[in-house]
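User: These chains co-purify. Model them together.
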Amino acid sequence: MWALATPALVLDRKKLKRNLEAMSERATRHDLDLRPHLKTAKSVEIGRLATAEHSGGITVSTLREAAYFIDGGFRDITYAVGLAPDKIDTVAGLQGDDVWVNVLVDNVPAARMLAKRADTLGVAFRAFIEIDTGDHRAGLTPDAEDLVAVAQALDESERVDVRGVLSHAGHSYRAQGADAIAAVAEEERHGLVVAAQRLRDAGFACPAVSPGSTPTAVYGKSWAGCTEMRPGNYMFFDLFQAGLGTCGIDDIAVSVVATVIGHKRDYNRLYVDAGALALSKDASANDTMAGAGYGLVCDMAGQPVAGVRVTNVSQEHGWVATANGGDPLPFERFPIGSRLRILPNHSCLTAAAYDRYYVVEGHALVDEWPRINGW
Amino acid sequence: MWALATPALVLDRKKLKRNLEAMSERATRHDLDLRPHLKTAKSVEIGRLATAEHSGGITVSTLREAAYFIDGGFRDITYAVGLAPDKIDTVAGLQGDDVWVNVLVDNVPAARMLAKRADTLGVAFRAFIEIDTGDHRAGLTPDAEDLVAVAQALDESERVDVRGVLSHAGHSYRAQGADAIAAVAEEERHGLVVAAQRLRDAGFACPAVSPGSTPTAVYGKSWAGCTEMRPGNYMFFDLFQAGLGTCGIDDIAVSVVATVIGHKRDYNRLYVDAGALALSKDASANDTMAGAGYGLVCDMAGQPVAGVRVTNVSQEHGWVATANGGDPLPFERFPIGSRLRILPNHSCLTAAAYDRYYVVEGHALVDEWPRINGW
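Assistant: Joint model of the two components:
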């Protein structure tokens, strides 16, 4: 089955499509454009599938992604990390005839530098103002004194179009259960609507109102006043999301294929050729799923082997053991040279170690899709 | 200073050379070949510098590294991860006239598969037997019943040369202080010598005896019976090693340059465009250095800013705050658009996010060296 050199990143096309369709339908039902965040997938092929029923707008997390997706034919891209002033010229260089890289600011100095540089270069930009709706990472709170000042600083150049407001409700990752996540979603929606109204009251049209996170996209109830959504992780999901209740284990579309390279029977464990680089050292899934370790072990058909985990990693080694350490590991199921699949804790970080997806459907290897990494 | 797009991985050439020379002298003083592990650096340029005074043999952690270093002119490479039987043919394909990819086994099934495949392919292999000298990751303990059986299984083919024994004293990373690390080094040496003697008693010449870890290489006292050492992290060092006492903060040769993209004064923090992917989520340095967070913040000259850390990360954002959270952050030193450098927790993982080193000396950007990643 799939004669792949291990470790390898495998993408289950059926699960991917199911995840994409569910989110697309959700956006359509709420009368929203789906502007998927490609920070997880970083693949033109997946970007095309994800936007099939929508405007074709996407979200990215790096300018290298922006360049790659522009090469792939995408024309309306939101770069959803606060703009470093030194990147303004790079954004200008990426844009072209009807190709836009929308940028994000949350402070007056950056807004002013953008406006000034737009005039110096003679280049038009589209800017979002980032709103902090409770995550307290980046962004201005909806009631922040500086909110209108940022819009006015952008407006110092006629070349800068204040597109609207954008948030990422990262605190949905810390919510427990559907109701708590729905409450975060409402907080995100309400914060954005309040901020947009303040900008409109100050004379800015603010046509775009953009919330975005996978948990709030799944559990949000009302989207009144929003124009789009920007989830990203939902394409693949992962153990963190499964623990949060945003997906089931069976919805996780990516896994790492590894080979058993040794048995350590005295210690009731074995080891595989997928370690910290192949899986990432993100252990956050353990916050939502006790005993997730560095990933759940599945057989090659993708069925979890009950209670078996990657319990530790070094650079190129993964330790496989029972979650509680006490139950005997079924060594007979894992002879030397046999293969297994590992469901990732955090697919965004795991996928970032690979330059391609091996796309599978059941027992068939059906395609190979490249992905971009780095900056 | 260095007009680099951020985040960028910067390598201080003076510190690199100082680290390389210190280890080279240590190996020479102990009459050992230095077979550096290139799993951290993954750079031909660095490999050449590291082996300048030695045999030219190196160690790698993936077969992609092996292929890359063979392209770079290296001819004697030890692949120091237990061999997955499916990789035997890849190793055979990489080898050529006087080009060797030495492999590692620690169990009879893998040894037997290697011997059988060597005869089927008509290809010669050089094999090490992995010894567990206390880390309990991979390897056979020096007194393991199977030790001679593995050598005999390899010996089932005349084409397989049993080169010797190899260990990685990973438990030195869990030792506290120079004396404890020296004790681990002695345990490693003694275990290898015992295993080698058992093999010799059984009729195997076992010419190579190979210990390897940065802490034991730094603090080991006797190397009697060993023929080489295989440290790797020492080229760059990192906060984990500094916390362990293996290096000083000033010896850390790599850092990540990031740009300040926002201030969050209400929360006494700011954020930069280097997050989980740019720094890695390895938090292990906090085990040896309280409050290391995800990296120490330095000014652009490389001087640590007292008490200032990356305290949290998301995919492309790093939170910068004071280590204790209470002391006020000196925002005036970090205006929007300004740059800073971050010393990594674990340089092996941080470097793996980048495809090149920007090589600097003082204020000068002097070179750009590619590196390899993936499998």
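Chain B has a mean pLDDT of 97.
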